[in-house]
Design a protein that fits this description.
Helix content is about 40%, strand content about 10%. It is an alpha+beta fold. Bound molecules: zinc ion (ZN). Zinc ion (ZN) binds next to loops.
Length: about 70
């Protein structure tokens, strides 16, 4: 005979079990610089900051345009 559960668990008990499962799966940290959700222990994708320092220069299209415009004027 295979091992079977003797009695069916109540809805309350099922909910208690699943509530802890959902907590474990949710992973994310708010960036202190720009406030976007990121994976823990990783550099922020939006601003390139990690542990209060800028590690990667994130170049947005608007910033690139302004830089190139200023250079051409000079
Ligand atoms: Zn950020």
């Amino acid at each position: 005979m295979p091992h079977e559960p003797k009695k069916r668990h109540s809805r309350q008990r099922q909910g208690k079990r699943r509530s802890s499962i959902k907590q474990a799966t949710s992973a994310g940290i708010l960036c202190p610089n720009c406030g976007t959700m990121n994976l823990p222990h990783t550099i922020c994708k939006k601003c390139g900051y990690y542990k209060g320092k800028q590690i990667i220069k994130v170049s947005s299209k608007t910033k690139e345009k302004t830089e190139t415009e200023n250079k051409s004027k000079k």
